[in-house]
Amino acid sequence: MVTCRLGDTGAVVAEVRSKLARLELGAPGDTFDPPTDRAVRAFQQQRGLRVDGVVGSLTYRALDEAHWRLGDRLLTEVIGHPFVGDDVVALQHRLHDLGFDPGRIDGIFGASTSAALREFQRGVGLPTDGAAGPGTLAALQRLSRTVTGGSPTARREEERLRSAGPSLRGRVVMVDPGHGGSDPGATGHGLTEAEVALDLARRVEGRLGVLGVRTYLTHGGDGVSDDASRARIANDVGADLLISLHVDTAATPVAGGVATAYYGAQVRGRLISSTLGERLAWLVQSEIVARTDLVDCRCHAKAWELLRLTRMPAVRVDVGYLSHPQDAARLRSPAFRDTVAEALSAAVQRLYLPDLDVPTGQLFVGAAAG
Ligand SMILES: [Zn+2]
Questions:
Q1: What is the pLDDT of residues 304-339, one digit of tens each?
Q2: Residues in contact with 334: Cβ distance below 8 Å, sequence separation at least 6, in sequence order
Q3: In angstroms, what is the span from residue 133 Cα to ligand 1's centroid?
Q4: Which of 253, 306, 319, 325 fits 227 for a cystine, CB–CB 3.0-4.6 Å?
Q5: If you measure from the C-alpha of residue 225 to the centroid of ligand 1, how many angstroms do you get, rounded to a whole number?
Q6: Of 145, 359, 370, 135, whose CA–CA distance to 265 is shortest?
Q7: Rounded mean pLDDT of 213-224?
Q8: What pLDDT is attached to residue 311?
Q9: Where would I find the beta strands (DSSP E) of 235-337?
């Protein structure tokens, strides 16, 4: 039986501290010092255990179960020796929120959790193996956002996407070149953000036009005073999507890469986000990453005004850093700009034609005009 307490040192203490660190209750180390004692007590308090600062078998087991995050391991029903942990709790919560019955939310992967998971898998057309693998977790995540993240806006967006059917013709896309007019945005290596963004926007406009998408720019180089006004322009024309184009800059030449933002905000501890905005952001990001050698700085939920005030799914993509020598060299090249424009156009196609069976990075303009 494991026991350790204030003043102890060694491998067991190191293990305890690393588990606490994963729970953001302290830092790794191998001494059971006073901060570790406080962390153990805080943990015991949280978990409803006896608060004595001693890591006995109960506290140790609770620590072990608590450090699992959903996706860390493949959860499935093992008769007689069930998976136990906080990842199971998270899974049970998600199933429950989606209207399935995983049994008591107790962190133990038993028969009812397994049955609920299979029912969910059957419902979304996944193989019903009762295992919470990557595909199942991704589907759970997506649906949890839609249903529990729960904004009526998200459901309206989904509804609108479905009701129009898989077609590009007649869609209205607002492309927003960042900055402009008296505001050049970022500058570096002889380039200005406003100039790059406008040129990219025109290239996107050309490509989407070919596909039958009605495409507007928020401005033609003279800029728009602020993001709220840009959002209003998109709302006023009733755009189906907004793509805002920027390039980034940083104090250090080392920072580089592409990142995409969609609307999302923490509201009372819960992430409220635009489901379609997130999907579009993910498509934009993966198409650009697949077609270029820009570093993948991933997608992020942001509550920026442009994203918050637009009534349609909106993303802002920062394509490279002007302060980064290689990124700037890429952005100077017309061929590179074409590639980015093609990636953005492919992302729009994929959003509206979700059944396209073409690997990311391989869809070309004209290939699937609906
Ligand atoms: Zn900018």
A1: 889 888 888 999 999 999 999 999 999 999 999 999
A2: none
A3: 38
A4: 306
A5: 13
A6: 145
A7: 93
A8: 84
A9: 241-248, 258-267, 270-273, 296-302, 314-321
Q: 221-246 burial, b if ≥16 CB within 10 A, otherwise e?
A: eebbeebeebbebbeeeebbbbbbbb
Q: Within 10 A of 300 (CB to CB), how many other CB atoms are there? A: 14
State in Å: Cα 210 to ligand 1 middle. 27
Share of the chain above pLDDT 90, in %: 53
Instruction: Kindly give the distance from the C-alpha atom of residue 29 to the centroid of ligand 1, in angstroms, as a whole number.
Output: 43
Residue whose C-alpha is closest to residue 279's, from 174, 351, 364: 351
Sign of the Cα torsion 47, 51, 55, 58 reads negative
Q: Is the dihedral of CA 73, 78, 81, 85 positive or negative?
A: positive
Distance 362 CA to ligand 1 centre (A): 28
- Token pair, residue 145, equals 């956002």
| Chain mean pLDDT for the chain | 86
CA distance 11 to 17: 10
Contacts of 326 (CB under 8 A, 6+ apart): 256
Q: Check if the beta carbon of residue 17 is closer than 8 Å to that of residue 33.
A: no
Q: Determine the straight-line distance between the first and last CA of the chain, rounded to whole angstroms.
A: 66
- Model's pTM, two decimal places? 0.58
Which helix (H) or strand (E) covers residue 210, if one does?
A: helix 193-210
Between the CA of 310 and the centroid of ligand 1 the distance, in Å, is 18
> How much is the average pLDDT of 249-272?
83
Centre of ligand 1 to C-alpha 22, Å, is 36
**CA-to-CA distance for 278 and 368, rounded, in angstroms?**
23
Contact 262, 307 (CB under 8 A): yes
Range 72-78 average pLDDT: 90
pLDDT score at 162? 58
pLDDT tens per residue, range 147-169: 444 444 455 555 566 555 567 88
